[in-house]
Write a structure and sequence with these properties.
CATH topology of the largest domain: Rossmann fold
Structural class: alpha/beta
Number of strands: 9
Oligomer: single chain
Number of domains: 4
Mean pLDDT: 82
CATH class of the largest domain: Alpha Beta
Distance between the termini: 83 Å
Low-confidence stretches: 36-58
Radius of gyration: 30 Å
CATH superfamily of the largest domain: P-loop containing nucleotide triphosphate hydrolases
Length: 488
């Protein structure tokens, strides 16, 4: 039909033009009709993901397939009982939950948990991103809000489900604090419609609807969204701990041929701060490295290199000069020597192969996850950061610009010590303490750490130079080689 209309229109335009008639008004009229018929309706539509249909492979996802989030999963499952046991809830006179907010860093599994929740409760599942509701046309976002709630009810009835779960990712885009967008009121209108829909939810009618939102910026959300009666529960989805990382690695390596000597617990210990998405990428990169080497199985060294790649990026083609390589070698050796002497077993590997923006890198391997630090432990972090530049100065008599990031990190740690009340200033407030006092105290902390590092390097000068020489020749040194060089 569209092709016929377009062809007829073009024929009419040609006929008028051949007969000497002014066709400018016709072009204007056609452009307006095209805008109305093709552009505006599309702005009122949105593509919804039906996560509960039999065609969606992820509809079979369950909570056992999600690792590292046992606390969050338990809390979410408790909240889902309000959907699964409506009669018991009514009998106890409990007000049904209308919304659950999943808050946490990116890549921690918030979307997976929402999909698993739909399978756990045997609900229809509708998914959308917060950005899909925001447009420049007035009223479009509010229309899309009404549409997704209406579609969820229809889909649940079509699938003979008693409940439906609507999942909105990037909720901070849709539900940001009202008044924060001064350009136009479309954001506020869309949020107002969401609040109205949530107030109108009734869990006593079939199908029951539960709204699950996900965000990594809960501080940006409007207070009206977080009040009881809308998002009643807030589930914190944090980065996994060591045991959680080991479980995630186990899940993502089930379909991969691993060498029997691969130690997933050792890998989890070396990946502190990794999210579930990072760990999935780690397992995938290790498999890619094994395939490049035409190895039939994935070995431990593939995982070690994959960790560096996930953290720092791919190896670069650029090659520093010989003099620069010597300076980089002594720099990384200084980091490794001081770190190892301060805490035995803390260095996993060091390399001078350029990756990302780094010309060299020392990877630490903490024995356990740590969330609280004493003054001594923070000071040791600063000492490790300063060791690279001081090793350069000891060997070449000068420092280089390569230590800039180290100095910035050291200053950040010193500021953290001051803010935490661990410095000689005692308990302070960041808002009230003068800037010059912060600078003087931070300088004192860094100068003290620098003197201690200088003493360690002077005492272990021969081991430092030997380690740097070996690193220059081998380019990368793992834990076994490091122990032979430092402790033989």
């Amino acid at each position: 039909m569209k092709s016929v209309l377009i062809g007829s229109g073009l024929a009419m335009v040609m006929f008028l033009w051949l007969n000497g008639i002014n066709i400018t008004p016709v072009f204007i009229a056609v452009a307006l009709i095209f805008a109305v018929l093709y552009l505006m309706p599309g702005q009122g539509q949105m593509k919804l993901t039906n996560g509960g249909s039999s065609r969606d492979k992820s509809s079979n996802l369950n909570f056992d397939q999600i690792g590292g989030q046992d606390v969050a999963i338990n809390e979410l499952q408790e909240a889902l009982q309000f959907v699964m046991q409506p009669e018991k809830i009514d009998h106890m006179g409990i007000r049904p939950l209308k919304g659950i907010l999943l808050a946490g860093p990116p890549g921690t599994g918030k979307t997976l948990m929402a999909r698993a929740a739909a399978n756990f409760t045997s609900s229809a599942f509708m998914a959308a991103s917060g950005s899909e509701f925001i447009e420049m046309y007035a009223g479009v976002g509010a229309k899309r809000i009404r549409q997704i709630f209406s579609s969820a009810r229809k889909e649940a009835k079509r699938m003979n489900k008693k409940s439906a779960i609507i999942f909105i990712d990037e909720l901070e885009v849709l539900a940001a604090k009202r008044g924060s967008n001064s350009s136009h009121m479309e954001y506020d209108q869309t949020l107002n419609q969401l609040l109205v829909e949530m107030d109108g939810l009734s869990q006593n009618k079939d199908p029951r609807i539960l709204l699950i939102g996900a965000t990594n910026r809960a501080d940006l959300l409007d207070p009206a969204v977080l009040r009881p009666g809308r998002f009643d529960r807030q589930v914190q989805v944090d980065l996994p701990d060591r045991a959680g990382r080991a479980k995630i690695l186990f899940i993502h390596t089930q379909n991969k041929p691993l060498d029997p000597d691969v130690d997933l617990d050792d890998i989890s210990r070396a990946t502190f701060g990794f999210s579930g998405a990072h760990l999935e990428s780690l397992a995938n990169e290790a498999a890619i490295l094994a395939m490049r080497e035409e190895s039939p199985i994935i070995k431990q060294n593939h995982f070690r290199e994959a960790i560096d790649k996930v953290m720092m990026g791919e190896k670069l083609d650029r090659q520093p000069s010989v003099s620069e390589m010597e300076r980089i070698s002594i720099h990384e050796s200084g980091h490794a020597l001081v770190c190892e002497l301060l805490e035995y077993g803390s260095v996993a590997s060091l390399t001078i192969v350029p990756r990302g923006k780094a010309l060299g890198f020392m990877r630490r391997s903490p024995q356990d996850d740590q969330y609280l630090y004493t003054y001594k432990e923070l000071e040791q972090q600063i000492m490790t950061m300063l060791a690279g530049a001081l090793a350069e100065e000891l060997r070449f008599g000068s420092r280089s610009s390569g230590a800039r990031n180290d100095f910035q990190q050291a200053w950040n740690v010193a500021r953290e010590m001051i803010s935490s009340g661990l410095s000689s200033l005692g308990v302070v407030s960041d808002d009230s303490i003068p800037t010059d006092i912060i600078y003087k105290e931070g300088k004192r902390i860094i100068d003290s750490a620098e003197n201690k590092v200088q003493a360690i390097l002077d005492e272990n000068k021969e081991r430092l130079f030997e380690l740097a020489t070996c690193l220059s020749l081998q380019e990368s040194i793992g834990r076994p080689s490091l122990e032979k060089i430092l402790y033989q």
